[in-house]
Every structure is written in structure tokens, then in C-alpha cells.
Amino acid sequence: MSESLLHRCPVVPVVVIHDAAHALPLGEALLAGGITVAEITLRTAAGIGAIEALATALPELHVGAGSVLVAEHVDQVVDAGARFVVSPGLSVAVLARAQARGVAALPGVATSSELMTAVGLGVTEVKFFPAGLLGGPAAIRALAAPFTSMTFMPSGGVSADNMADYLAIPAVPAVSGSWMVDPGLLAEGRWDEVTARSAAAIRAARGSGAFQRVV
């Protein structure tokens, strides 16, 4: 990627949204809490509509699509306004389509073999997933040692309680998680709580030292 995605914001919320009408108040709540990047997953039918709503109304929020599994998904989300795509695994076809459409792609990796493939494809930023089950911060430290040019965004098992442990690693400029955008909060319209959790996450990132690396 020519432009770093992971250095835009140290905390990237993973949003599972069931009603596209919630997209705008959600985006406003995230921005109010200091979060400027959001991943809207394709796990629900409302995902693409939510991406389109946010891309249109809140250009200051860097909106991307998660759970992008096939190349056709790339076309769908980019047409809706997504500015990056995130996948749970590494797909050469997804990476190629993202490059053709001019958007950043963050492939998921779990092993050193997948990291070698990523390096061969010119990828310098990856999602480490599922981070908690794969060994957490210790696993990333071990993988970062031979892959000195790679930066990691851990996802899966990352929480408010352990995010600072990940962000203390120089190779981790950002983490992703869903605690600040819990589906229950969205369903109940508790936007103030989304803002509060987002602000707390940004404060924690600042305290970890990642904020200084990002800004």
C-alpha cells in the first residue's frame, strides 16, 4: 500500500450493523470520541448500505469494508464508497481487485507462511486474526522479528483490557475490536456510550505510546 492505513487511527472499530439507518448516528458518535477509521463488516445485509451512508454523509470518517471474502465483494463495497477492504484471510484475487480499484487492502494472516506470501505480494500491513487464539502479543512479537518491514493490526480477542499490551509493540500501530460498537449499543441507540467507549480507547492508545507513533 502506498499510503499507510494502520497509521491513520490506533483503534479501528469492527462494526456489525443490522440497520443501515444507524450508520450516520454511529459515525457521528465515533468521530465525537476521536475515532476516524471504521470497518463496516459484510456479515449482515445492512453492511453495504451503511458504508454508502457513511461515505456520503461523513467524508471525514475513513470508512472501509470488513469480511471481504471474494473479488466481487471489492467491487460492491468500493462502488458503495469504501476506501479500504479487510479480509479474515489472504486472497490473491481480493488483493489484485483492490489494487485495480485503487483502495487499500488489509489481508488476514495467522502464520509465517502467509506472511511470506504477503511479503511476496508487496503487502506491508496485515490483520493478525484471530489474535487472541493465536498467542496474542507474544505471537506478534515473535513474528515481527523476522518480518521487520511488516506492521500488524491484531483483531479477534482484542479488548479494552488488553489493547495496550498490543499497542506497546512497535510493529502494532493499530488494533481492531468491537467493544465500543457492541451490537446491543447500536440496537438501543446508545450513541453517548459509543462515544464514551471510543474516547476511552483513544486515551488508552495515547497512554500506550501508539498515539505518538500514529500522529
UniProtKB/TrEMBL annotation:
It is an enzyme of class 4 (lyase). It catalyses: 2-dehydro-3-deoxy-6-phospho-D-gluconate = D-glyceraldehyde 3-phosphate + pyruvate. Its EC number is 4.1.2.14. Pathway: Carbohydrate acid metabolism; 2-dehydro-3-deoxy-D-gluconate degradation; D-glyceraldehyde 3-phosphate and pyruvate from 2-dehydro-3-deoxy-D-gluconate: step 2/2. GO terms for molecular function: 2-dehydro-3-deoxy-phosphogluconate aldolase activity. Belongs to the KHG/KDPG aldolase family. This is 2-dehydro-3-deoxy-phosphogluconate aldolase. The lineage of its organism: Bacteria, Bacillati, Actinomycetota, Actinomycetes, Nakamurellales.
